[in-house]
Predict the structure.
Amino acid sequence: MAGPAAPRPSRRADLLAVAFVVVAVGVAAWALRDELPDVLAAIGKIAWWRMLLALACVVAGLMATAEVWKYCLSALGSSVSSGAARQIFFPAQVGKYLPGSIWPFLAQMRFAREHGVPGGLALLAGSVFLVVHAVTSVLVGALLLISQPALVSRFGWAGLFVPLAFVLLHPKVINLLARKLAGRSGVEPPVLRWRDLVRPLAWMFPAWLAYGLAGYLLAAPFTDSILQLLVVCTGAFALGWIVGLVVFIAPAGVGAREAVLILALTPLLGVAAATTVSLILRVAHTLADVLLALRYGLVRARRNHREPEEPVASA
């Protein structure tokens, strides 16, 4: 029986993604041309140990999202260990930096089959994973509006999505989305219930908190605020994530996420410091993605190298 047909990347979408990144970088560089000396000075104010701790927080947040993906897969009826989930999830995630948004899904389908998971279920798990991410990002992003009423004029639209997020969270809605996606995956999805979604949803909140703490560590030298800054950093990152998802032509949300972070942090830090924090956060997330992909990609490669020898050894 033939496996499910994998979605095909679009060359036109790839070109649009490349063009978007080039234009976004160019526009940002032009807009900040007068702020460049202040941005460079702001970088010097952030101690190296703050950058290392921020990177550690980002790694912790990404590890939590691997658990989210694992429990999304488990909710669909295929359980794997945390180690196996990381070997599938992290090497596939670097595909989000390529033009086009389909590469992580294709890689997850391929790597999941090595652990006995049907590719179609891996595709569905990745889709449910995105829904859980999006729903919780809107809820956490609402913290930004609560902590910074002055930002309502810029991000007030996000408050309109909070009721919608609760609607999307309902298992009936997720089941409907799963059935729609089932046509492409070739797998009949099980009926999801609340108990199936509790664990993936619960693991998202420490992930958002870790991302917010990373931003706080980098932004703290520029303000005396403590609790407010942590709340703003967490809400801004979550809101930036959903904007990066909506601007789907931006690989890994490049440009879109940073724009939201700069707008949200500027009232507390100023333009130069907000730009510095957003850029260092982008570097930290990219570096963390690469390090985790290498770490668990090597584990996966060693595992695949040993497996053919095991039957001979046991015989």
Remarks:
- Residues 36-77+118-288 form one domain.
- Residues 18 and 99 are 6 Å apart (CA to CA).
- Residues 1-7, 13-25, 309-315 have pLDDT under 50 and may be disordered.
